[in-house]
Every structure is written in C-alpha cells, then in structure tokens.
C-alpha cells in the first residue's frame, strides 16, 4: 500500500510539473500589448485617454517652457528706451521678443501718457489673456485623471459579472477559471489607475509651471509700473 501511495504521489507531481512546463511558455510569450488587450473592450477608451493626455502634456509643456524663457535684456532695454523717451523703440523691442511677458508690457507701453490706473488695467487684462492661453486644455488632464480609474473599475465589474455568469451556466465553480478571469479583468483596473496617476501628475506639473510664470510676469509688471512713476517719464 505504501508503494502504491508513493507511485500515486509521484505521478501527481509529474503531472503538475508537466502542466507548469506547458503553461510557462504561454505566459512568457505574452507581450505588453497582448496583456493589455486581455482587459477587454474597456481598454479601448482607456488607451485613447492615455494618448490624449500624452499629447496635451507634451504640447502644453513645450508651450509653457517656451513662454517661460527669460530675456535678461528685455526689461533693461525697455527701461533705457522709456527713460530716453523712445517709446516706439521700446515697443519694437517687445515685438521682437514675442513672449508672453513682452506682449503684456507692450500693451502697457501703448497706454503711456494715460493715467497709471489705465496702464495697470491694460497690463492686467493682457496678462489674464496670456495666462488663459497657457492654461488651454490643461483641465482636460484633470478630467482624464478622474475618468481613467473609473473606467478601469467598470471593466473589472463587467468582468466579474461575466465570470459569475459563466459559473452559473457551468453549474459549478472552477477555481482556475475564476482566478484566471479575475487576473485578466484586473488589468483594466491597473491600467486605468496608472493612466489616472500619470494624468494627475502631469496636471499638477503644468499648473506649477504656469504659476511660476504668473509670478514672474507680475514681478516684471510691478517693475514696469514703478518705472513709469519715475520723474521725467
């Protein structure tokens, strides 16, 4: 009896090893795209959200970075021309720079001769317009950060519903089918959460860049107004 039991245990172990060897190549052969596609149809909108967020982040990052590039001589040239009474030359300097700060100061230069309050209002309005241009589409990243995880959870829920429906039809629970199905459906949740986190990070990175630029523009605007308050201007 002991001999027969040993043979049965040995045969069982051999069968398990053979099954593991057969399953291992199938798992190893799966690439990332094939693994993601196992998440079901819900992966299509999740992937679309990923590419939309990526395009928006890259485009806004480049735009804000270019707008943040500082011309160290800009304010010095404007100050020199204003103190010399050469307003046209100061406006020409702003036009040649073609940056958010230069366009804002140019709007103030065109109002020189009017009350300071009018000049401040013109600069403030121009600054708001520039900030609105910089913040364009950034809120979409915030929307993606909220929607992507929810889509992932929806995919998982539909997957669980499908698994229990198959169990009901089969009339019994196969732990391999249930665990395998859950493994596949959890891909949707993992993908949605990952894309949501990336979109959330990108959203705050761009907002921080815009805030730094706003602070810089406000500082230069105050310096420009102080310049106009100097005697002889």
CA-based gyration radius: 32 Å
Distance between the termini: 111 Å
Number of helices: 9
Query: What summary fits the major beta sheet?
Result: none
Overall mean pLDDT stands at: 76
Transmembrane segments: 39-58, 138-163, 183-206
Keywords: Cell membrane, Membrane, Protein transport, Transmembrane, Transmembrane helix, Transport
Main location: membrane
InterPro entries: ExbB/TolQ_transport, MotA_ExbB_proton_chnl
What do these coordinates show?
- This protein has helices at 2-28, 32-37, 43-68, 74-83, 87-97, 100-109, 116-134, 138-170, 175-228.
- With 233 residues, the protein is mostly helical.
- The chain folds into two domains: 1-30; 31-228, no CATH class.
Please outline the helices and strands:
Blueprint: H1 2-28, H2 32-37, H3 43-68, H4 74-83, H5 87-97, H6 100-109, H7 116-134, H8 138-170, H9 175-228
Helix pairs in contact: 3-8, 3-9, 4-5, 4-9, 5-6, 6-7, 6-9, 7-9, 8-9
Summarize this structure as a short list of keywords or feature phrases.
2 domains, 84% helix, disordered N terminus, transmembrane helix, cell membrane
Summarize the structure.
This protein is mainly α.
